[in-house]
Amino acid sequence: MNKKVALITGVTGQDGAYLAEFLLDKGYEVHGIKRRTSLFNTDRIDHLFQDPHVSDGRFVLHHGDMTDSSSLIRIIQQTRPDEIYNLAAQSHVAVSFEEPEYTANSDALGALRVLEAIRILGMEKKTRFYQASTSELYGLVQETPQKETTPFYPRSPYAVAKLYAYWITVNYREAYGMYACNGILFNHESPIRGETFVTRKITRALARIKLGLQECLYLGNINALRDWGHARDYVEMQWLMLQQEQAEDYVIATGQQYSVRDFVNAVVSELGMSIRWEGDGVDEKGYDEKGQCIVAIDPRYFRPTEVETLLGDASKAKSKLGWVPRTSFVELVREMAESDLKQAEFDLKVQEHGHKALRGQG
Ligand code: NDP
Ligand code: GDR
C-alpha cells in the first residue's frame, strides 16, 4: 500500500511539531508549510528534519503563508495530500486585539484559502481537511460544561476569525461533500508551548525566579478558569478525527478546570518553592518565604473582553473516537516545570561563566 501523505499548516508551532512527530511514527510522508522569517523558526521540528542531500526524507518543508493563496495552491498541487491539518494561525488572543485585521486574514480567510485550493484542484474527494477550532468560540459561555451543541459567543478578534473558519469548514462539508471537520480543542500546553501563553510564561518565570535570574512574574487576570490538557494527547485526536467514516466536529477537553492562580500554586509546589497571597484585585501579590514579591498583577495584561471560564465536555470524542486524555494536570505541570528549570539552569551557567565555559558540557 502507498504511504499516506499529510500536509500540516503551522508545522513550526506547538501542535504542528507534535503532530508531525506522531504522523511520521505512523509511517506518513509529512509535508509542512513554514513562513519566511528573518531568524530560524524551526526549533521545534529540527530533530525531525532529514537533510535532502543525504536521504529521501519523509519530512519536507515548503515556504508558504496563510495570507497567500498562490503559495497554498502550489503546495497542495505539488504534494497532493490525503490529509490536510490546518493548524496555522495568529493564535494569541491578546495579540488579536492589537492586530485584528491580520488575525482575520490568516485565521479566517486562511482556512477558506486552503478549502478553495482543494476545490480548485478538484481534490474534494481525495483530501480530508482538519480545522483547528477552539474553545474560545464559546467565549461568554452559554452553558457549562461546553459541548458540540453549546451556542458560540466569541469574545475577541481571534475568536471571531475562528468562528468564520469553523462555519466555512461546515459549509464546504455540506456544499461540496468534502470530508472536512472541526476539532474544538480546549487549551493544551506542553514544554514547547509559546512563551507568552500563560502556562509557559508561569513555568519559565518561576524557574528563573527560583535560580535568581528574575525577580517577579507579572500576570493579568489570575482568576480566569481554563480546562488545560497536554498537546501530545490532543494531536492524536486530530488524526483520529480524519480516520472516521463520516466527517464530524468534536470537542476535545479534559473535563477538569483550574484557575491561573491554581496553575501558579502548582508550579510553585513542583519547584519546591512556597507562595503566600496577599491583597485584592490589582493589588494582589504573591510572596515567597523570604517575603520577596514573586507574583504581581499588571493590568496591561487584562483583555478588553475576557473569557472568564471554560470547561469542556468531551463525551462525544470519548464514545465515538475512543479518545481519553492520558496526562493529568499535575503531570503536565511537572513536565513543563522540569523542562523550564533545566533551561534556567543552563541560562544561569551562561550568565555566570559565559558560553566558553560551557564548551564540552553537552
Ligand atoms: P502556535 O502559535 O504555537 O503555532 C501557530 C503556527 O501557525 C506556527 O507554526 C506559526 O508560524 C504559524 N502561522 C501563523 N501565522 C501564519 C501565516 N500567516 N502563514 C503561515 N503560518 C502561520 O499555535 P498552537 O500550535 O498552539 O495551535 C495550533 C492551532 O490550534 C492554532 O490554529 C490555534 O489557534 C489552534 N488552537 C490552539 C489551542 C491551544 O491551546 N494550543 C486550542 C485550540 C485551538 P511561526 O512559527 O512562524 O510563528
Ligand atoms: P487563551 O490562552 O487566551 O486561553 O488562548 P492564554 O494562555 O493566553 O490565556 C489563558 C488565560 O490566562 C489569562 N492570563 C494571561 N494570559 C497571558 N497570555 N499572559 C498573562 O500574563 C496572563 N495573565 C492572566 C488570560 O487572560 C486568559 O484568561 C489559548 C490559545 O492557545 C488560543 O490559540 C486557543 O484557541 C485557546 O487557548 C483555546
UniProtKB/TrEMBL annotation:
It comes from the Bacteria. PANTHER family: GDP-MANNOSE 4,6 DEHYDRATASE, GDP-MANNOSE 4,6-DEHYDRATASE. The keyword Transferase does not apply. Catalyzes the conversion of GDP-D-mannose to GDP-4-dehydro-6-deoxy-D-mannose. It comes from Herbaspirillum rhizosphaerae. It catalyses: GDP-alpha-D-mannose = GDP-4-dehydro-alpha-D-rhamnose + H2O. InterPro entries: GDP_Man_deHydtase, NAD(P)-bd_dom, NAD(P)-bd_dom_sf. It holds the Pfam family GDP_Man_Dehyd. Belongs to the NAD(P)-dependent epimerase/dehydratase family. GDP-mannose 4,6-dehydratase subfamily. Signal peptide: none annotated. The keyword Lyase applies. Its cofactor is NADP(+). Its EC number is 4.2.1.47. This is GDP-mannose 4,6-dehydratase. Keywords: Lyase, NADP. Residues 7-336 form the NAD(P)-binding domain. GO terms for molecular function: GDP-mannose 4,6-dehydratase activity.
